[in-house]
Each structure stands twice: as C-alpha cells, then as structure tokens.
C-alpha cells in the first residue's frame, strides 16, 4: 500500500483525525473494535431515513425494499466467506451470540452426559463460557489443547484429546492476545478424521486475512461485524446446511416459524429458523457495506500491509530494554502483546492514553491464557490497515518515555 | 488535620501541575513511596479484585481511630490508594462515614474511579467506608 493510497483510506475514517487530550489520536486497539468508514455510517443513515420497515412481513413497498436489502446482505456475507449457499449464513448479534447459538442448539441435538468438547488454551471467554455452560447442563467435560512457548497450538496433544466421546472442537482462527494464526485447516482435517465437527471463531481473522469456509471445510465459522469496520450488534454464523438443518432453533418468536397453533408450532426453513424476532436489517446492510469496502481494497493487500506493520512494530519495540513480547508464533496476525520489565500493563496503558495512544491492557477476556502464562496481563497494540509506520514511531517514542517514568 | 483539610492539601499539591504527565509522575512517586503491605497483609480476605489491577486493603481500629494500609500491583493505582489512605487514615469511623471524597474529582483523577476502569478502586473506596461502619457498629455494641 503506497503512501497516497493510505492517506485516501484514512480520509474515509473521520475518527482517525480526532484529537485526544490535544494530541493526535493513535488508535491501536483494533482487536477490540475497529473504526468505521464513512460508507458504513452513511449506509446506516440511509437505512433509517429511506429503507426502514420491518422485513419479511409487509406487502408494502418499503418492507419489500428492506427485506431485499437484508437478504442481499446475506448473499454478500456468504460470498465474503466463500460459503456454498447463502442459506448457510445466519445473522447474529456477533461472535458471542453465534457461539452460544451453536453451543445451545448443537448441544441439544447431539450431546449427552459423558461427552466432551475440545477448545484451546488461547480461547477468548466467548469461546470458553458457552461450552462450559453446555458441559454443566449436560454433564460433559471440557478438554483443552495446550500450546508451546511461542504460543502455537500443540497439534500432537490435540490428536490425543480426540476420542469417541468428542462431540465438537471449537477454536479461534487467530488469538486475540497472542496474534497466533492457528492452522485451522489442519485442525479441521484431524478432527474430521475422527468424525468430529469444528467451529472456528473468526472474530480476529475475518478482518485481517482472506477466509474460505469451503476450502477450510469448517462446519461452523463465526465473526463480528464491528471488528471488520461494520456496526456493533451484528455478526454472522456460517454453518454447514446439514448441521443447521439437524439443529433445533435457538430462540423462539416471530420469523422463525412456519405455522403456530397453541398445540404445535412448525419451524421455518434455513436461515430463518435461527433468526427469531425482528433482525437487525439496518445492521446487516451496513455490515455488507463494510465487507464491500474491505473487498474493494483487497483482503490480500490488507493482510500484506498489516504484516508490514507487525514486522516493523515488533522490530521497533524490541529496541526497548526489558521488552518481552507475548506470542511469537511463526504465523502471526497484526497483534503485539507485550510487557516491559516488571511494569504493570495498566500503568503503561494509562500513561499512553494521556499521550493520545489507545491500546488495550489487561487479560483481554482470556483469563485462562493469561493465568497459564503466569503474568498479570499484557499491553496489546493491534493494527488495522489504516495504521501507519509513522504512528508506530510515535507510539514507540511515547512508550520509551512512559517506561522511563515507571521504571 | 481534618479530612477536608487533607483533601484541600492534595488539591493544592496537584494544582501546581498543568501537564497530565507531571500529575502522573507525582502519582507514581506517591505509589512508589507507599509503605508496602507485607505479604502477610495480602490475604485473600484483603484483596479487592479488579479486572485490570488488584488492590489490597487492610484496616484496624486503634484508640478510636481507623488505620488503613493498602497496596496495588499497578503503581498508578497504588498512588491513588496512597492518597485515599492519606486522607482517611487515623480518623474516627464517624468522620470517615460522613466524608464526601471531592479531591479525586478536583485533581482530575475521576476517570480512575469510574466503574468501567474496573481497577478495584471503586470497590476500595466502598470498602474503606464499610470498615468504618463495621468498627462503629462493633464499638457501639460494647
């Protein structure tokens, strides 16, 4: 990505020119949420001003238009993930709800006491707690894939965890703390050899690397809109038709029904079976706009630029004495978690904030991972395609100043 | 000195700095010079878990006055712990219960006490008053 192109892109994101405490904002908390380009915000506005009517209900013009927009958004998401059928895309409130949906409905249909679920040590709480809740409900056991000191999954250990009691594997594509890009294709291949389906948590991957759910042969793939420059409160679940058809509905209500009598309700077909209530059709259309936006730039180009930032940022940070980068996998996304000497992450984060730099500190909703590393948390800088090397320079200079104050 | 005189003293001390980084440098100094709670005081009973950092608080009653000691794993939080202790320690339960802590707002550290920071400080302030209430109740029972 050349300089001019980067400037043009940055101009699409008004928030990037904000001042924080009279300093230029440097936003390195993209792992938590990303900023929104004008096109996305305008789509939301256009939706409420010109397209607002409840979908799948009305015979009137606006309702038709809104329905068409929502369904067109589904096709955009399906194409983005390279899904075979758009009926395999279920809109959810985000990654968390998507995982809860699968844990609940898949669990209801296929799991019983004594069964096992396999996750990994580097999962976000969103990919731990729903499975724990399922295990508690059903009397099942949660098994955890360990990792090596670089933050890479131990696939040999994974193989030993699989057995005839294993009902599902649920694993992050990219770790939100370590940045590790997990070999999910390999994980899926191994799981499938044992007839075990796999859910991939794509919250941290979809915004940064090209994803093809059919090539991966993922059974379920989930992501959040707000982490890929779209609105909050909307996300998607991709599920293979054969699984989704065999799973009971997650929630009951309008939209998901075919017929209702007080004696018996029959359910609608996919994808509507899983979309009870009025869906966020404004959110879905704006999410589709965000996907079009990143596709126009090109996912490969985005991945290449972010990789450059990762390599540059890592090298710059390593110049600081006492620097310890947490997560040094061979395949990494643009996430750098670190600690400096014995300084508490909170102190670094608070002081960087006062210098206009937004980073995340703490356990990043992955407490078991942080505990396993024996650290109080990390400072995390996570880059997006609109970030620049110049911003990294300002960040590193500020960090040096902060470290001197705190040492 | 009364609690309010102590609060006013802190406000004056912080008013000498315009720049945020200078205020924070002072806070770091305060944090570093806070007498650390030896490991014996860092019991599970004394811990106040925050999402971002942890705070330990110990309180005892001596000659009708409440004595506080505290600690945190983050130095900025420790600095604020130090200020809170400076203001409230060695006062009677009644004085502590009836105090409005306005200095935090005045020196611009309110954000550290917002519940969203989840650094254990909000719970600490609450806990300090709870101790005072408990000591008062204990005393009046005698």
Q: How many discrete structural domains of chain B?
A: 1
CATH architecture annotation name of chain B: Alpha-Beta Complex
Low-confidence stretches of chain B: none
Structural class computed from helices and strand pairing of chain B: alpha+beta
The rounded distance between the terminal residues' Cα atoms of chain B is 28 Å
Q: For the CA atoms, what is the radius of gyration of chain B?
A: 15 Å
Q: Going across the major beta sheet of chain A, what is the strand order?
A: 4-10-9-8-7-5-6
Estimate the helix proportion of chain A, in percent. Answer: 40-55%
Describe, in plain words, how this protein is organized in 3D:
The complex is a heterodimer of chains A (about 400) and B (about 140). Chain A is of the alpha/beta class and about 400 residues long. Chain A folds into 2 domains: about 5-30 and about 300-405, Aspartate Aminotransferase, domain 1, CATH 3.90.1150; about 40-295, 3-Layer(aba) Sandwich (Aspartate Aminotransferase, domain 2), CATH 3.40.640.10. Chain A contains 14 helices and 17 strands. Chain A has helices at about 5-10, 40-50, 60-80, 95-110, 130-140, 155-160, 185-195, 215, 240-245, 280-295, 300-320, 345-355, 365-375, 390-405, and strands at about 20, 25, 25, 90, 115-120, 140-145, 165-170, 200, 220-225, 235-240, 255-260, 265, 325, 335-340, 355-360, 360, 380. In chain A, α7 links the parallel β7 and β8 (about 200). The model of chain A has no long low-confidence stretch (mean pLDDT about 95). In chain B, β2 and β3 (about 65-70) form a beta hairpin. Chain B has a single domain (about 5-35, about 45-140), classed as Sufe protein. Chain: A, CATH 3.90.1010. In chain B, strands 1-2-3 form a 3-stranded antiparallel sheet.
């Amino acid at each position: 990505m050349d300089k001019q192109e980067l400037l043009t892109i940055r101009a699409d994101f008004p928030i990037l020119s904000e001042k924080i405490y009279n300093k230029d904002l440097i936003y390195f908390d993209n792992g938590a949420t990303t900023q929104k380009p004008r096109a996305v915000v305008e789509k939301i506005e256009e939706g409420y001003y010109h397209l607002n009517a409840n979908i799948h209900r009305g015979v009137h013009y606006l309702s038709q238009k809104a329905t068409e927009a929502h369904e067109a958004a589904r096709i955009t998401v399906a194409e983005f993930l390279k899904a075979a059928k758009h009926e395999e895309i279920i809109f959810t409130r985000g990654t968390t709800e998507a995982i809860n949906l699968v844990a609940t409905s898949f669990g209801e249909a296929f799991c019983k006491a004594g069964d096992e679920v396999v996750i990994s040590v580097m999962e976000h709480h969103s990919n731990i707690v729903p499975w724990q809740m399922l295990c508690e409900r059903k009397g099942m056991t949660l098994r955890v894939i360990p990792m090596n000191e670089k933050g890479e999954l131990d696939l040999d250990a994974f193989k030993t965890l699989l057995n005839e009691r294993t009902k599902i594997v649920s694993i992050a594509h990219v770790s939100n703390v370590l940045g590790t890009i997990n070999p999910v294709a390999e994980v899926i291949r191994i799981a499938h050899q044992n007839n075990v389906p796999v859910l991939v948590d794509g919250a941290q991957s979809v915004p940064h690397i090209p994803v093809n759910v059919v090539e991966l042969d993922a059974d379920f793939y989930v992501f959040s809109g707000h982490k890929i420059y779209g609105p909050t409160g909307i996300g998607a679940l991709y599920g293979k038709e054969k699984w989704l058809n065999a799973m009971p509905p997650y929630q009951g209500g309008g939209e998901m029904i075919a017929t209702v009598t007080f004696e018996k309700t029959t359910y609608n077909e996919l994808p509507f079976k899983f979309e009870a209530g009025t869906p966020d059709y404004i959110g879905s259309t704006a999410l589709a706009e965000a996907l079009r936006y990143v596709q126009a730039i090109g996912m490969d180009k985005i991945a290449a630029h972010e990789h450059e930032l990762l390599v540059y940022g890592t090298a710059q940070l390593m110049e600081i004495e006492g620097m310890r980068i947490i997560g040094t996998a061979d395949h990494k996304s643009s996430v750098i978690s670190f600690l400096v000497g014995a300084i508490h992450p909170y102190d670094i984060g608070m002081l960087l904030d006062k210098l206009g730099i937004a980073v995340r500190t703490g356990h990043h909703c992955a407490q078991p991972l942080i505990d396993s590393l024996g650290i109080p948390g990390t400072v995390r800088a996570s880059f997006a395609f609109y970030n620049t090397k110049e911003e990294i320079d300002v960040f590193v200079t500020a960090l040096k100043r902060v470290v001197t104050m705190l040492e | 000195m009364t609690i309010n005189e102590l609060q006013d003293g802190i406000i004056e001390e912080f008013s000498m700095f315009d720049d945020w980084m200078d205020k924070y440098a002072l806070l770091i100094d305060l944090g570093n010079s806070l007498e650390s709670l030896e490991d014996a005081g860092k019991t599970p009973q004394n811990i106040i878990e925050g999402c971002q950092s942890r705070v330990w608080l110990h309180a005892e009653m001596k000659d009708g006055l409440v004595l506080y000691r505290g600690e945190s794993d983050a130095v900025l939080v420790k600095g604020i712990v130090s200020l809170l202790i400076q203001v409230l320690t060695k006062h009677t339960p009644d004085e502590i219960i009836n105090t409005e802590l306005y200095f935090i707002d005045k020196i611009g550290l309110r954000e550290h006490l917002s519940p969203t920071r989840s650094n254990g400080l909000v719970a600490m302030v609450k806990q300090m008053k709870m101790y005072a209430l408990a000591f008062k109740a204990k005393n009046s029972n005698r």
